[in-house]
Amino acid sequence: MEFCPADVVDSDRLCSWEGGSDTDGYGSRTRCEMKLGTFLERWCAGWPNRQLGYLKDWHLPRLHPKVASDTYSPLDVFGFDGLNAWCDGRDADDYRFVYAGQAGTWTALHHDVLCSHSWSANVVGRKHWILFPPAVTELLFDGQGNLVPDARPSAWKQYSSAVRASLSQAWAKRVEATQGVGDVVFVPAGWHHQVHNVAGTVSVNHNWICASGLPAFCAFVVRELHDTCASIADLRAREEHEPVDGTGEERTFLNNISSGRSADCLMSCLLYTSPSPRD
After folding, report:
1. How far apart are CA 107 and CA 105, in angstroms?
2. Residue (of 134, 135, 128, 118) closest to 152 by Cα position
3. Were 105 and a residue from 33, 54, 75, 261 both cysteine, which residue would form a disulfide, CB within 3.0 to 4.6 Å?
4. DSSP-assigned letter for residue 277
5. Residues 180, 122: contact at Cβ < 8 Å?
């Protein structure tokens, strides 16, 4: 499989650098942008992980559709991809990525974006997966409302005894798997997981939403809406006393949240989850 033709190598892509402990809830750490060609040159030159980083979220199908279509196609067993169909219909960023990293790079504990299903196909290398079913999600937090980045027992010593007890319960329910070349891993919606590259690895990853993923997706959107409303309550109160100047984007956002018009985006996406033929 060829991932580095001349028209692709010079693209500017987003890399996630190893190092630092802060994550964004989706297993992402400190990020920087660099040219794909620069990343590959440094990898071949033997740069250490902390300097090279981990290439993530390279939108190969969106940025180079011919290269992607000539290289692979999703397995039919995964069903209709309503999420990316919705993105393609609006010329929006999609949820189809290529990851590439040396041995020792990894993605911290997270659930997939929008609480969607995901699949990951290894082109080169080997990954080790640690997955937790939704039933133990509440046991994976650090006592301060933050998801722990690393749920392995070797990382528990920094937490309180109560948190360690919870993590121990979650650990007992984990599923572990080692993924080799040509293997495809399916991660159901809502399953938290962390992934470690055991060897230098290149993988193709898709997030998608079909009929079976709708309950988790809708529940996620409702939770996000609730959390957003709570987080901007003080802003709404301030606006009543201090009118917002400028473009009015803040007021528009508040009005959309208050009136529920933002749900239009959810409903239009849901329409794409039907596998029935459309004109």
Report:
1. 7
2. 128
3. 54
4. -
5. yes
pLDDT at 99: 93
> 32: which 2 tokens?
């920087």
Q: 93: Cβ–Cβ under 8 A, 6 or more apart, which residues?
A: 59, 62, 87
DSSP state, residue 17: P
pLDDT above 70 covers what percent of the chain?
Answer: 73
What count of residues does the chain have? 279
Q: What 3-state class would DSSP assign to 254?
A: helix
Summarised one tens digit per residue, pLDDT across range 209-233 is 988 988 898 888 888 888 777 777 7
The whole-angstrom separation of Cα 258 and Cα 270 is 21
Answer for the pair 79, 40: CB distance below 8 angstroms, yes or no.
no
Type of residue found at 260: G
Q: ∠ CA(170), CA(174), CA(175), 5° rounding?
A: 170
Query: Distance between CA atoms of 167 and 177, rounded to whole angstroms?
Result: 19
Cβ within 8 Å of residue 120, ≥6 positions away: 99, 127, 179, 184, 185, 187, 195, 203, 204, 205
Structural contact between residues 148 and 114, judged by C-beta atoms closer than 8 angstroms: no
**The residue type at 16:** S
Q: Which residue has the higher pLDDT, 158 or 24?
A: 158
CA distance 141 to 197: 24
